[in-house]
Amino acid sequence: MDRNADAPWSKFDPEVYVDNNYRTPLEVDLLIVRLMRDHFGQCLADVAPGSLRGVDVGAGANLYPALSMLPWCAKVLLLEYARPNVEYLERQTGPEGYDTAWDAFWDVLSQGPAHRAVEHPRSRVGEIVRVERANLFDLDGRRRWDIGTMFFVADSMSECPEEFQRGVRCFMNALNEGAPFAVAFMKESVGYDVGEHHYPAYRVNRDLAAESLEPFSGGLTIHDLDHVVRPGHEGMLLALGRRNAEVAAP
Length: 250
Ligand SMILES: C[S@@+](CC[C@H](N)C(=O)[O-])C[C@H]1O[C@@H](n2cnc3c(N)ncnc32)[C@H](O)[C@@H]1O
Hints:
This protein has 250 residues and is an alpha/beta fold. The protein has nine helices and nine strands. S-adenosylmethionine binds next to loops.
């Protein structure tokens, strides 16, 4: 069984990953972005813009979770383990501004009032988004973020059931009580290729997703999205909710 530490993370190619997944925006990602925008918008209707600390865990080569949190945040931290992805994210958040590939996602986001009020998303990303190399498993359980996302990480980093559960727990334990969150899993994934390299996955279905997240959540909704984007999975699961008061063992 492939554990997280066994996978070739140092060989992860972010440009190939973006080509495979985001360069041509898929209907399902645009749907996810809309659902996430509305969830955050509803949860944060009374929150002042630019006041929260946000985190995207295992950000990889995907900027749309960070863009989704942008209006409400004073700071957004992108935590990522694979060095090539850290470098990709540093470029996206650097002075040149993020790639045009991410504009299609911003277009959907900016159909909501909070995002529409952000006049210059590229410069805002450069001002408030920071990147840090970190291992999800090393998050120490200190609750410090007010809003958070984790997209295709706990399910797409290991074949090991304990590591899936631990990944979910480490993420949820980093969120303050009341923090809105969005978590996405590939449904029933058997692993994935990026270029010549293979990466492990744990097969998650709707019940497993609910079981893992419910202990930490209030008002959990799981969207079971049928869209299949490549061989080797059966759809996507998008979980939206708020962190409850429960303190879980690390
Ligand atoms: C399938 S990719 C998802 C990337 C991105 N979040 C997305 O939505 O496309 C899985 C990501 O998890 C990251 N990852 C793997 N193990 C990790 C760990 N122990 N801590 C943090 N991130 C990790 C990988 O480097 C990769 O970026």
